[in-house]
Amino acid sequence: MNATTMHFVPPADFHARAREALDDAKLRASFRGAMDFLQAKRSTQFPDAQELEQLRDLGEAIRRHALANLPQLLEQLEAKLTSAGVQVHWAETGEEANAIIARIAAERGARTIIKGKSMASEEIELNHYLADRGVDCIESDMGEYIVQMAGEKPSHIVMPAIHKTREEIGTLFEQHIPGTAYSDDVDTLIRTGRRALRSAFAGADIGLSGVNFAAADTGTLWLVENEGNGRLSTTVPDVHIAIMGLEKVVAKLEHIVPLASLLTRSATGQAITTYFNLISGPRRPGERDGPREMHLVLLDNGRTQAYADEQLRATLQCIRCGACMNHCPVYGRIGGHAYGTTYPGPIGKIISPHLLGLEATADLATASSLCGACGEVCPVRIPIPALLVRLRTEANRNPQEPVAHPLRGQGAKFSRGDKLLWRFWSGAFAHPKAYRWFRLAATRMRALAPSAQLGWTRYRAPLKPAARSLADLLEERKQPE
């Protein structure tokens, strides 16, 4: 299935934005400190290496089992939720999901939506879609509230405003919250934000949330959070809309417990988050709170492309903890905004090509040293380095080459010149006689080496063959190669 390409900043401009970030000493220092802090907090939550590996094995098995049975589990989830009074909607693209939510809002005359944290809604640019139709979306997660106020995208999937200093936040609040004096005291800033948001919960027509996990056997939506905004946005307004990627379903409610343990400890270094919300339907007769009407939007938006390929399906195991970002040397130096995608860092590099196509995201897969840190810390063992190599292969594959499950944008980086060069190179090194002739020509004609050598000389000095090859020197000394 094809997804609608939607983004604020073209990922194709990644190289230019990365250079800007690397030149920003303040940003680099801020991210370095934040990443070191998060790595240390995660480490303290997993003191027993054996327990961690066993929990990772269990988490991987649960996610793989769910994906292996995904169609049946989604149908089971729909049936359970429908029987509980939840209206379930299926959206193939981001545009369809936006249209569904806009229609619900229009039918109820809604003008304000209060949102708990939802990366899926960020993915489809819901706020801007609804704003164009006269509906105001207010982010209630403090980090999301800050970046919305600044007119920016989140730079981290768990901590959206991690790139902001308290001084910058103080200035934002002073400028945008009436009657607020400047302060850079963290507790004062939190109180100010909460006070500004409190009335928004009571006045909103609709509450919207994401979903961390959904249990097919009970029809339960599970949300983890620390601020209480998720609980308020899903219970105070009369209408609750949840939006969820297709892959978030698991077979049983009990399967969520180890996943939640991995998520909270891997994401923020907490043994458990402050709030665990389990939602199984709208308000029932006799209940005194909760929404009177509830909807779930199940979002594809390119996920079935990853699902169709046996290797790339592992991308959908992700539980959105952000640990891969916190340990990535590239993300730690350039931050999230450089990527230009909703999901930055290692997980963004492997999921964004399915959401946006390889034409827009081919450069992201190469923004990695393949050091393997992301794969080593992934709580559900997604083989991120191997998937990056696979996506690089697909980006450089001939777009006309028939494959079982072609990716949208296959061949985005394909070059016939590169193809011929590598064919020559492999041929020269595969045959001893050809290699000897190549070696002889390279040393004798070294002065003709070009100063511009494709991407190599973008950041490095030109390669120039030595006057004497190692084989020649060994032969001169009568030593075997």
Task: Give a written overview of the molecule.
The chain has 481 residues and is an alpha/beta fold. The chain contains 22 helices and 10 strands. The strands form 2 sheets. It has a 6-stranded parallel beta sheet with strand order 1-10-7-4-2-3, sandwiched between helices. It has a 4-stranded mixed beta sheet with strand order 8-5-6-9, with helices on both faces. The longest helix is centred in the N-terminal third of the chain and has 21 residues. Helices cover 48% and strands 10% of the residues. The radius of gyration is 26 Å and the shape is globular.
- Radius of gyration over C-alpha positions, nearest whole angstrom: 26 Å
**How much of the sequence is in beta strands?**
5-15%
Strand order of the largest sheet: 1-10-7-4-2-3
Helix percentage range: 40-55%
Give the end-to-end Cα distance, rounded to a whole number of Å: 54 Å
Count of helices?
22
